[in-house]
Predict the structure.
Amino acid sequence: MINKNFAFKRFRRLRYNPIVRDLVRETVLTKNDLIYPMFVVPGKNVKNPVKSMPGVFQFSIENLVEECAEVRGLGVPAIILFGIPEQKDEQGSDAYNPEGIIQKAIRAIKKEINDLLIITDICLCEYTSHGHCGVLAGEEILNDETISLLAKEAVSHVEAGADMVAPSDMMDGRVLAIRKALDYKGYDKIPIMSYAAKYASGYYGPFRDAAESTPAFGDRRSHQMDIGNINEALREVETDIEEGADIVMVKPAGPYLDVIRKVKERFEMPTAAYQVSGEFSMIKAAGQNDWVDEERVMIESLTSIKRAGADMILTYFAKDAAMWIDKNRN
Ligand code: PBG
Ligand code: ZN
């Protein structure tokens, strides 16, 4: 009776019943995995849509606070904050101005909402008139001069109330400089999430609209990593850990799943991945055209990043994903 093609191993046994499928699912996205990037601008009552990022806005401070309450209400535990200052200059001085846009925004959020983790992005490109991530000598971005300013920026954000800092500049030695500066001021309990393996990626295009940080000339290839390199990513991560990084990040996420996996396996550190603006906007655009089912592709992209080894994901989909989780799990 037994057909010679009888299948002893029937993987499908576990696929017929949705309850069984849930029982055997290996990777599950939760709200605690999500960090929501937000943009704050000067002014009153501003809620500017970012054209290349549907559903993402630049908020003035009071609107940002309101939005943060909504984000927290949805169960998203953390945000990463980007500031666009009133005045940009060569040194990016608003980044470390106690009355700067980020510092004011942090204080305003903390006054109203006490259980939302505030991470701040540490870089100068949103604050410099030339849009580069550091101070310039001619067209060169100076490393060591820049890291002292980044350390000042980190201290200033923490003094305003930031819970964690995330250097995204890719200068050498910045994690150590920031760690020392924070410890010197008594902030030894503030963790550093370093953008450890950050690639010179085409996927940051929409973000530069949102953060108004497109470089006036040239590009970021003198500090961000070459897209083909993975061994170098491991050296970058190793160095950041030695310098005191508490969480290491790979960025972008989707196109660099191999890097996430290798970093997680090699270092066994808390590992973050940034699903960047271009990854978000491509899914949005295809969804809006009905070329793909946006919700399914969103969850699939986030689950893939987690499956690759990320413990947490910075994503513009954080609110949507939290709503999806509410709708789909009881
Ligand atoms: C600042 C910074 C960038 C991003 C995060 N921090 C832009 C860049 O390096 O040009 C990109 C985030 C995104 O694309 O969503 N250095
Ligand atoms: Zn930068």
